[in-house]
Amino acid sequence: MKMAAPTASKAASLGCNNKPAFPELDFRSGARVEELNKLIQEFTKHDQREYDDQRALEIHTAKDFIFSMLGMVQKLDQKLPVANEYLLLSGGVREGVVDLDLDELNVYARGTDYDMDFTLLVPALKLHDRNQPVTLDMRHSALCHSWLSLRLFDEGTISKWKDCCTIVDHINGATNYFFSPTKVADWFYDSISIVLSEIQKKPQRGMPKVEKVEKNGTIISIILAVGSSRMLYDIVPVVSFKGWPAVAQSWLMENHFWDGKITEEEVISGFYLVPACSYKGKKDNEWRLSFARSEVQLKKCISSSLMQAYQACKAIIIKLLSRPKAISPYHLRSMMLWACDRLPANYLAQEDYAAHFLLGLIDDLQHCLVNKMCPNYFIPQCNMLEHLSEETVMLHARKLSSVRSDPAEHLRTAIEHVKAANRLTLELQRRGSTTSIPSPQSDGGDPNQPDDRLAKKLQQLVTENPGEVHLRLY
Prior knowledge:
Elements: H1 8-13, H2 33-47, H3 53-77, E1 87-90, E2 116-127, E3 145-146, H4 155-161, E4 165-169, E5 175-179, H5 181-201, E6 209-216, E7 219-226, E8 229-242, H6 264-267, E9 270-274, E10 287-290, H7 292-299, H8 304-320, H9 329-342, H10 345-348, H11 354-371, H12 390-405, H13 407-431, H14 453-463
Parallel strand pairs: 2-8
Antiparallel strand pairs: 1-2, 3-10, 4-5, 6-7, 7-8, 8-9, 9-10
Helix pairs in contact: 2-8, 2-13, 3-5, 3-14, 8-9, 8-11, 8-13, 11-12
């Protein structure tokens, strides 16, 4: 009686299949997935900054300086809320941590101009009464945008801020004051400049040196030299709300990747109006809805491998798609959030799938360009690419096609850029600094204590400050 020949799977298990296992390849480019994973890991290693004692002290010193400066701005004319809540995000506006337009921003480069960058949202006005419905005047605006009437606030607030408003007179004789993002930004820049001028008249030992103060559109960018570090702070005047806007209410009815991982209360604790207008909007009146506070919470639910792919992809597209300014890293962030909703959590949790995620993000971005469609994650009916011309989207789509054809080469370029930035930073540290901050080892403490004890303590101070919202993104 003849034995049946073993099937292919059985043969393989019995060692009868002599064909070598073929490496996993990317069909489009022919790149080895294993090599792409290694390149992403190398990029992550060079892109992530470790904080030693000295660097942690410098971060804390810069933060204290900025917060003290804002306290002095508040005292100038009492415009800013006395008890304010800031949102501090790791990464500058150019990194896409907030949905703002990049067209009017000067180009700053890590390594050349700064070593670490942050975005600080500073409420000029707060509407934090949870019992009051969040009503926004969207009659004059595109989706995701709104005018803000000061009729929502008391007479004292109107009196303080009416010089930063545009005035609309109605037929019935009533006057309506609309909070102007451009006028608020002008006032904020002037106030910060006055305060910094006063501070610099009486410099104190260990105080950061202000290397640059610039108004970039409606954003105030400050570069501080602190010890051996240069910190970029993009300071954004905003309007802060508790609760959730009605225009995004339907989003809460859908299923999302964060369901069961964090509570809805954490996600919808508040939102902002940031100083940015739509393509055809009126710059003096129109604000943009921002869900930066919610995004901080959602980021906790994203796997490390997907975040690594996102950071690598962002590094590639920031330079590649910089001209003309059409695609922001914030668009890529939105696509990542949509991917989290679309794909199974156990798939996205795979530690060795960073290469697949990188290729997928490139594919998603190219698909959005070709179709000129990138829905806002929180307000899907808002298409963030709607205003782009066919010529612009096709130009960027072709550039992305070159990335997709050779992702390994573009990753190597991104790695070289971040390594070069790190070399510039180390060179500056070796040359010394214009500002002297006492070394944390010079306090007469026990030299046998672990080196990272002070760093950990200062990291905690940086991230836990009572009386203010102070959150870091990594």
